[in-house]
């Protein structure tokens, strides 16, 4: 009996080392084509960032994010959980500084409002709580939102607007964080702008009822994050948990919602500081190339 137990212990230790030291820092760029533009349109390149979970001492991650400017996107979309510490705003602004040269939009996530705290991992396997106990220390999200707005990006929190992207009018609608029950879809409800080149919805957590509301209003694409792609996945299999209402098979990447709308869930670049592990789920940003529909 000792040998099998020893083998399991060695494999577990190796997997833990790989997930916390190697894969957690193996940043990558995913690429997907999304056919949502009118026929004959030029492609639009959208850089989707999410769940950066930045702290002041993550210099490798800060530099990697800065390097994403080399992709020369037409638009940057940040779907929240950018902060992970009260003193991290200078690090966030340094990381995003080269990306402020491009049009950008953003919404907050739950960890932008409240600092991460230790949690029992087993709680993620149960049903989500009906209410959230907001006992964690607050984070200075209003200050970060103001700084990103001053740098040129648009805060989409409960806002509908149009922006010029690559000489085209793009329609946006965004929500506050659904995970903290702050999302109020009625504040942005109504038919999407038919005169825009494309219509994009933005939120942090991909809750099915909100994705359905965007689809019913005629949006072409919705961008979200929050799930970390599951963060720990089965090899070649689905996420173990999603921490939201979306099913485990759609915890990351590009999917169809219905015959008109796509949605993309970015697996994100960070982790909760108290659970610094990724397994079979590399930290990532995504370059979406919007193309004419077929």
Mean pLDDT, as a whole number?
91
Shape assignment: globular
Radius of gyration: 19 Å
What class do helices, strands and sheet pairing give? Answer: alpha/beta
The largest sheet has its strands arranged as 1-12-2-3-4-5
Query: What's the main sheet like?
Result: 6 strands, mixed
Number of strands: 12
Overall tally of domains:
1
Enter the CATH topology name.
Answer: Purple Acid Phosphatase, chain A, domain 2
Encode the helix/strand succession as letters. HEEHEHEHHEEEEHEEEE
Span of the ends, CA to CA:
60 Å
Oligomer: single chain
Full CATH superfamily name: Metallo-dependent phosphatases
CATH architecture: 4-Layer Sandwich
Outline the fold blueprint.
Blueprint: H1 2-22, E1 28-37, E2 44-49, H2 59-67, E3 75-78, H3 89-96, E4 104-106, H4 110-113, H5 141-150, E5 154-155, E6 159-165, E7 168-174, E8 198-202, H6 208-216, E9 221-224, E10 253-256, E11 262-265, E12 284-292
Parallel strand pairs: 1-12, 2-3, 3-4, 4-5, 7-8, 8-9, 9-11
Antiparallel strand pairs: 2-12, 6-7, 10-11
Helix pairs in contact: 2-3
